């Protein structure tokens, strides 16, 4: 009986050794680190140059809508924030930080910010429109993802976090609702409202309760390690259909996070359980991703064996979910929102009370 040859990973012909693959990957990542962003500091247009149509998402002090640029008929997502509400809710620094960070980054798995502008009432952020909708929607539809699907999305997120950390940026809000799928099904991280550039640590309490690392809850000061904790929570939620720590109250969630007892469903692969035990470590000095080799320790873990990291960066690896859409401005992959209030209805009113908060935005 003829023994069948072992199936090799798709990149082994290009890179016969793991060392060669790692060297080539590091070279590509360095190229992205020096790549200029697409942000335009002095846009020559206003909101009147766009047709604003469907609502893509809503928040406490604004919304994101689909916008078609009248000159080129190209589609964008436009984030409109009401100045008075941003100031009232003490979110000025978060909004300014989001703009500053997105204006300096450019990576395949991070949404692009093209420009920002403002009027008397509102702040406007013109973003890349990502037609595939939220990963959250696809996860809820599926109930849970398979091991291979989860590894695909986790791999792209690892590369994105590694890129952000190389620029001393922590993201701090990793969750399915903030992950979009592009037209090919690849990840695009969005909503950088909690992202921050740091030298060492910061003490701001922010994030989604189920995803908070223990050091954030305990106000010990936190840094890049919180993103690797959140990655562990996300991988668990994709595989199980729910996060590992949940309760009816935020306080109950925090208690369970600090207790640190994770119950793994029976269908979890042994390798992913090992990875999660190394990510969901209360002591950040022992947490995978925060050790000497950084993100490389995560990429070398056996659960990621066979991942074509370079193919992911080049987007030549086929995604497990390829979104269905009829045209570039199709919004069927997003939830439908009732247009109960127009954030730009008061455009004609003169109100300069909050201008000094947003000088240069």
From TrEMBL:
UniProt-listed Gene3D superfamilies: Phosphorylase Kinase, domain 1, Transferase(Phosphotransferase) domain 1
Positions that bind ATP: 79
Source superkingdom: Eukaryota
Record-linked InterPro entries: AGC-kinase_C, Kinase-like_dom_sf, Prot_kinase_dom, Protein_kinase_ATP_BS, Ser/Thr_kinase_AS
Catalytic reactions on record: L-threonyl-[protein] + ATP = O-phospho-L-threonyl-[protein] + ADP + H(+); L-seryl-[protein] + ATP = O-phospho-L-seryl-[protein] + ADP + H(+)
Residues forming coiled coils: none
Alphabetized CDD domains for the sequence: STKc_PKA_like (cd05580)
EC number: 2.7.11.11
Keyword annotations: ATP-binding, Kinase, Nucleotide-binding, Serine/threonine-protein kinase, Transferase
Molecular function terms, GO-annotated: ATP binding; cAMP-dependent protein kinase activity
EC main group: transferase
Keyword Oxidoreductase listed: no
Domain Protein kinase, chain residue ranges per copy: 50-304
Gene Ontology CC: cAMP-dependent protein kinase complex; cytosol
Domain AGC-kinase C-terminal, chain residue ranges per copy: 305-361
Entry's family note: Belongs to the protein kinase superfamily.
Official protein name in the record: cAMP-dependent protein kinase
Lineage: Eukaryota, Fungi, Fungi incertae sedis, Mucoromycota, Mucoromycotina
